[in-house]
Amino acid sequence: RYEEGERWLLARTAPPPTGTPLGLYDGLAGVAHVLDRLGHRQRALDLIERILAERWQNLSSDLHGGLAGLGLVLGELARTTGESELGDRAAEAADILVRRLAQPLADSPKRRRAGLLRGASGPALFLLRQYERTGEPLLLKAAEVALRRDLDCCMTHPTGSLEVDEGWRTLPYLGDGSAGIGMVLDDYLAQGADSEGEFERARAGILTAATSRFYVQPGLFQGRAGMILHLARTDTPGASKERLAEQIDGLGWFAMDYQGQLAFPGHQMMRLSMDLSTGTAGCLLALGAALDTPDTAHLPFLPPLGRPHIRGSAT
After folding, report:
1. Is the pLDDT at 106 greater than 80, yes or no?
2. Tens digit of pLDDT for each residue in 197-211?
3. How many Å apart are CA 304 and CA 315, to the nearest integer?
4. What is the per-residue pLDDT across 193-247, written as a single tens digit (0 to 9) for each?
5. Where are the alpha helices (DSSP H) in the chain?
6. What's the number of CA atoms in the CB half-sphere (13 Å) around residue 34?
7. Helix (H) or strand (E) holding 262
8. What average pLDDT does the chain have?
9. Which residues pair with residue 257 across a beta bridge?
10. Residue 305 contacts by C-beta under 8 Å, 6 or more apart in sequence?
11. pLDDT score of 313 more than 60
12. How many other C-beta atoms are found inside a 10 Å radius of the C-beta of residue 198?
């Protein structure tokens, strides 16, 4: 527990500043999720009440700041609090996403965002979690549609690496690249069928993307730490503790001393950063997921699957 941080968070949510975003990774839903995990349940429910008083149904579909992230938080709070209305709102968010996924796409794959945070893989993750709660086949089918949309935005390099194609660059990363798609594919294949082997082939290409020798940055969503998290979690055939160890060793290329402790540079390598997305906290989460620890670290709503383990500590 980090009491100073909790006091800071409680002070700044009583009430939160006007205009604070509503999402999981950019706003009030994420804060509510954290506060509930820390035992501040009433404050978490107060924040959710503020969200539900807004036109939350008009949010984008994505995990970062949209309906997928909010739906995940609503579903989890319904479980932990027993508040049936929260479960109803999570079901409403799922219904909206299913309807959106049933609509034809208006733009070409290369112009769409793809990946865990801002692509269709975030909605797929939420729909999978809803399917686990309800057993409704329509949700599983919609999750499959969402994953196929993200895979349509990918290309395979001659090396076999499957990456998100943005037209002017390709991305293997966890946040906006193929590694994030791979994490949700892992979850889907634990529930759904892959009769033609398309998803398994995609996972194999993503494994290649996650085992490159060089990545420009160390961070979780845009660098090597995200590859470590994916490799620590995936059950893709060919994943191994040796490949995971290579990526952990590679993270050491970026390590820096700060006040006698270990730190990592953030986005664009221009300064040290302590944040989850691009900096030291994200590297710590990835290493916590990869190393044998009593309570395995993971991203929200992406708990560990069967995974390779590495004993000891990174140097």
Report:
1. no
2. 999 999 999 999 999
3. 23
4. 898 899 999 999 999 999 999 999 999 999 999 999 999 999 999 999 999 999 9
5. 3-11, 28-37, 41-52, 67-81, 84-102, 121-134, 137-151, 178-189, 198-209, 224-233, 241-251, 280-290
6. 19
7. strand 261-265
8. 93
9. 262
10. 186, 187, 190, 233, 234, 235
11. no
12. 13
Over residues 137-149, the pLDDT tens digits come to: 999 999 999 999 9
In degrees and rounded to multiples of 5, residue 276 shows phi and psi of -75, -40
Structure-block tokens of residue 98: 């299913």
Q: Which two tokens stand for residue 260?
A: 């006698």
Amino acid at 165: D
- Whole-number pLDDT of residue 221: 98
Separation CA 129–CA 75 (nearest Å): 9
Encode burial over 127-164: b for 16+ CB neighbours within 10 A, e otherwise: bbbbbeeeeeeebbebbbebbebbbebbebeeeebbbb
**Structure token digits, residue 214:** 């060089």
Q: How far is CA 131 from the centre of its chain?
A: 18
**Which pair of tokens denotes residue 12?**
């700044």
Region class of 11: left (phi > 0), else alpha (psi between -120 and 50), else beta: alpha
